[in-house]
Amino acid sequence: MAGSDDMRIPAELAEQFRDPKWGAGQLSNISILNGFTNEELEKLYGVGEIISLKSNSYAVIEGEPTRGLYVILFGTVSVYKNEPISGAMHRIAYLDQGANFGELSLFDQAPRSASVAAEAVCHLFHLDAEVFENYLDKAGEDLRSRFYKACAEELVSRFRKLNSDYINSQQLLWKHAFNKEKQTAEQEAAS
Questions:
Q1: Minimal CA–CA distance to 112: which of 153, 81, 83?
Q2: Tens digits of residue pLDDT in 138-153
Q3: Where in the chain are the domains?
Q4: Full-model pTM
Q5: Which CATH number does 11-141 carry?
Q6: Residue 143 to residue 43: CA distance in whole angstroms
Q7: Beta sheet of 77-82, edge-to-edge order
Q8: Distance between CA 44 and CA 27 in Å, rounded?
Q9: Facing residues of 136 across strands?
Q10: If we measure between CA atoms, which residue out of 109, 102, 105 comes closest to residue 51?
Q11: Cys-Cys link to 24, which of 2, 41, 122, 148 (CB 3.0-4.6 A)?
Q12: E strands of 14-112, at which residues?
């Protein structure tokens, strides 16, 4: 594991970050890695790198073609989306220690869907998609199959939530429209 040249990781954190068992624990919280054993996660953690970001530095920028997973080991980041018409950036989320982002880019070629910037000094685990592919190649088809099965399960889960959210929003929209129509009719009757 390598630290970046421009930021020093405090000794107590650096020691923790070097521990593959601790790293495996961080990776075990990522749903698309659910099919991995602890030993496989320890090895996977070993092929990644630790990067450090200064406050307001970007880990990823919306639209760029980079691929790779990030896990926040220390610090907080903000997630931003660009408004298509004005180009203004809007914060849509804060992510703290233990959270991850970029996981879908391990198996997807799409450009980054959001920008992620450090709120203060942050230390992140980064697993480049090409390094991950090499890891899967060496590990064999069984692990690759377990990984893609977990990916499919995660995508189905996200789709179901999105579908449920859409249905709920439509019901609220129709309820609001009917209430508005009723209020208008009552106001016209009172006039």
A1: 81
A2: 999 999 999 999 989 9
A3: 11-141
A4: 0.80
A5: 2.60.120.10
A6: 13
A7: 58-60, 115-118, 77-82, 89-95
A8: 9
A9: none
A10: 102
A11: 41
A12: 49-53, 58-60, 68-74, 77-82, 89-95, 100-101
